[in-house]
Design a protein that fits this description.
heterodimer; A: mainly beta; 6-stranded mixed sheet; B: mainly beta; 7-stranded mixed sheet; 0% helix
């Protein structure tokens, strides 16, 4: 059973701080991981993907993948109130649909 | 503009009625998906289709039906057999199974049973 686990939160951080969102997965066979941002009442929006061990940076966002420890993380630097949303982690295993975690709610306090 | 459209945005249904939710994409994606999201919950896969005229059940297919007659379209019917259909319904698409580029979502349809 392929599973992706996330802490539901809420995770509260002050404006300007680094927000760290984490995700663990059950099966080492995953080939790639994706982070989605979902604002309340809206659909998920893809913000990052990573398939190699290590870090991948895109603006204020850094995705980190550690296949040996089976975890994925998303760092948001200089957090803004507009970053307040639910962040979904998803993994890809072979020729099947993405497996999504239940999401972590992030609240950035001004 | 390329993208995924869903209609209607809001839908109200009386108990015992079947309703059909529309999903159209012009991204030339092969695969399409339907998810259900309940308040404070994650995404649950209802059905998915990798190619035209073929589709597979997801985790919660009971009470739902789909068709895939065209590459661009993947409508979802919520039947009267679905006992608790009030939810936010999301359609998504991807190139293949989304291993490289992920899945892209439409804006969603919010269904309420009266």
């Amino acid at each position: 059973q392929k599973e992706v686990e996330q802490n539901s939160g809420p995770l509260s951080v002050p404006e300007g701080a680094i927000a760290s969102l984490n995700c663990t997965y059950s099966d080492r066979g995953s080939q790639s991981f994706f982070w989605y941002r979902q604002y309340s009442g809206k659909s998920p929006e893809l913000i990052m993907f990573i398939y190699s061990n290590g870090d991948k940076e895109d603006g204020r966002f850094t995705a980190q993948l550690n296949k040996a420890s089976q975890y994925v993380s998303l760092l948001i630097r200089d957090s803004q109130p507009s970053d307040s949303a639910t962040y979904l982690c998803a993994g890809a295993w072979g020729n099947t649909p993405l497996v999504f975690g239940k999401g972590t709610r992030l609240s950035v306090i001004a | 503009d390329g993208g995924i459209t869903q209609s209607p945005k809001y839908l109200f249904r009386k108990e015992g009625q079947n309703v059909t939710l529309s999903c159209e994409q012009n991204l030339n994606h092969d695969a399409m998906y339907w998810y259900r999201q309940d308040p404070g919950q994650g995404l649950r896969l209802i059905y998915y289709s990798q190619i035209v005229n073929d589709f597979q059940k997801g985790d919660i297919a009971e009470g739902y039906s789909v068709s895939r007659e065209k590459k661009e379209s993947f409508p979802l019917t919520v039947t009267s057999a679905q006992k608790n259909p009030t939810a936010f319904y999301l359609c998504a698409s991807s190139i293949g199974q989304g291993l490289v580029q992920g899945q892209f979502f439409g804006p969603g349809t919010r269904l309420t049973v009266l």
